[in-house]
Amino acid sequence: MASRTSCRSCSVGVSITVKGNSRYNYDLRHEVAAKAVRGTAVGDAFGGVLVENDDPMPTVTVTPVADSVTEGQKLTWKVELSQPADTNIETRFDLLPVREGTELSTKDVDEEWLSELGEAADPERPLSTDSPSLWVSVPKGETSTEVSVPTVTDALTESEESLRMQVYILKEDEWLEGPLLTGKVTDARQG
Question: Which residue would you say has higher pLDDT here, 126 or 34?
Fold first, then answer.
């Protein structure tokens, strides 16, 4: 006759190695699931370990590379981190109406670029009309990337046009407000 072993409080040890460093990352979860095999019962089938990140998020700065251009050129800003992170650092640039002067229109920017934002050039309207956003990510392990708004040359003689963008930086599940940016575009015939 086979013998049975009775266990009222049995446990199984699971080893998890966590390599620490000084780079920012999100909290890390290690999930563990247990499965009852014949003749046994499991009180709780799921468990795990939460490794909380204790490293501060890098400081994010946004600086102009080319924020005053002639039409046909790209308005460009550099997004830079104070140090690399172990996760992508997400930023969002919300296009806002300009406070004075003429705003860039949907006909003043590259049509394919506009299409990637989910917008159409027609009918022509100020660029901020449908509240589009540019999404830019600094890849994990890197410290910078650029965001650009490609403008196009047209046959019209125009006064200076501009755009305004509010930057937001994602930290965990919260969007933190960053700098307010402006860009100016002059007519190719005036430059």
Answer: 126
